[in-house]
Structure formats: C-alpha cells, structure tokens
Design a protein that fits this description.
Blueprint: E1 15-16, H1 19-23, H2 28-31, E2 39-45, E3 51-57, H3 70-87, E4 92-101, E5 110-121, E6 124-133, E7 136-147, H4 150-158
Antiparallel strand pairs: 1-2, 2-3, 3-5, 4-7, 5-6, 6-7
Bound molecules: ligand 3IX.
Length: 160
C-alpha cells in the first residue's frame, strides 16, 4: 500500500520550477516516483531565483533504522545541486560532491534543500547546499560542477 499524500508546498514567495522542461525527464532516480515510497520531490525558485526543493524521504530511503541512508541524502545533493547549476544557466555534470552528514534524518518527513551558486571559474561552478528543516541541518554539501559543451548536453538530453 503506497503512503498517503504528503504536503510538498513551498513558501509564500517561492515559484514552482519545472525541472523536466529544462533538463528533460531523465532525473528519475530521485524525482521519478512522485507518489512512490522512495522520494517525493517538488522544485521551486526562491525570491532570489535560487533553487529550492521540498523532499520527503520515504521508507525506501532507509539506512539506519527509521532514518535516511547517507547515500540517499548524497543522491539528493547530486541531483539538486547539479540542477541548481543548470537552473542558473550552466550545462554541467557533477565532478565532485562532498557531503557532511550532521544529524540523522528521520524518515517520512518533508525537508528542504537549499542551494546557492558560490562561484564560477572557467568550466568550474561551485554550488553549496544543505538539507534542513527549521533550525536542524541534516546534511551540507559542496558540489563542483563542470560545464560540458552545449552540443554534448543537447545530445544527452535528446536520448531520453
Ligand atoms: C544525469 C545526466 C547528466 C547528463 C548531463 C547532460 C545533459 C543532459 C541534459 C540534462 C542534464 C540533466 C540534469 C542535470 C541535473 C542534475 C543531474 C545530476 C548530476 C549528475 O549526477 S551528473 C552524473 C555524475 N557525474 C558524472 O558522471 C561525471 C563524470 N565525469 C566526467 O564526465 C568528467 O570527468 C568531467 C566532465 C567532470 C570532467 O572531464 P573533462 O575531460 O571534460 O574536463 P577536465 O578533466 O579537463 O576538467 C576540467 C577542469 O575541472 C577540474 N576537475 C574535473 N573533475 C574534477 C574533480 N573531480 N575534482 C576536482 N577538479 C576537477 C579539472 O582539474 C579541470 O580544472 P582546470 O581547468 O583548472 O585544470
């Protein structure tokens, strides 16, 4: 039996962000089952245009009993921070992802992923993010994204 619906609504000044229209429908590992028992995700931009996500970690993301697997948090960081770079106009893949796990994340609650573009230099785009709820930070990450040629990005996207 699937879990009941969860409230993924954003804050008042956020606008919903349509990830598939930007990057295609390939992001199924994290975003592919909006009514499933793994993750449920909704993307937004905040008032400054930065990417935000509301994410529910379902029972299938379990690692330590009752809590999210570290890899499930890393997968979320990979997708959201990579997508944050795309949303800021950079066609990238993730070259390096460094995650600090700060607190055990209880399953079946909605948390927020915040992101910001820290810097760009040549092909490198540095993105930082955190998974949090209220004052509690569950994980923080630094993500080095590397731009790829527009042509390569278009070809990859065309394969989906
Ligand atoms: C999910 C599919 C993604 C495909 C994207 C393509 C387009 C399709 C359309 C939509 C995309 C969809 C969604 C986007 C949103 C999120 C998706 C999640 C993100 C991912 O999940 S994506 C999968 C995981 N990702 C990989 O599977 C990458 C495999 N890998 C490579 O494809 C190469 O490895 C690459 C391209 C990274 C670099 O290769 P390269 O030959 O082009 O460039 P090079 O090595 O010369 O590096 C240039 C400068 O970056 C520095 N540099 C590079 N890597 C570094 C590292 N790790 N640490 C420190 N510095 C590094 C160098 O030191 C040099 O720096 P400097 O210029 O200063 O010397």
């Amino acid at each position: 039996m699937p879990m009941p619906p969860v409230d993924l609504s954003g804050e008042a000044n956020w606008t919903e962000f349509d990830a598939p229209s930007l990057v295609g429908a390939s992001l199924r590992f994290v975003s592919g089952e909006p009514e499933g028992d793994r993750y449920r995700v909704r993307y937004y931009r905040n008032a400054d245009g930065a990417l935000r996500a509301r994410i529910w970690f379902g029972p299938e993301t379990e690692g330590p009993p009752g809590h999210a697997h570290g890899g499930s948090m890393a997968a979320v960081m990979d997708e959201v921070l990579g997508l944050a770079a795309w949303a800021a106009g950079y066609p990238i893949v993730v070259g390096n992802l460094n995650v600090d796990f700060r607190n055990l994340l209880p399953l079946q609650q909605v948390v927020t992923v915040e992101s910001e573009i820290l810097s760009t230099s040549g092909r490198k785009v540095m993105v930082r993010g955190r998974i949090c709820k209220g004052d509690t930070v569950y994980a923080e990450a630094d993500c080095l994204c590397i731009t790829i040629p527009e042509q390569a990005a278009a070809e990859l996207a065309g394969k989906h």
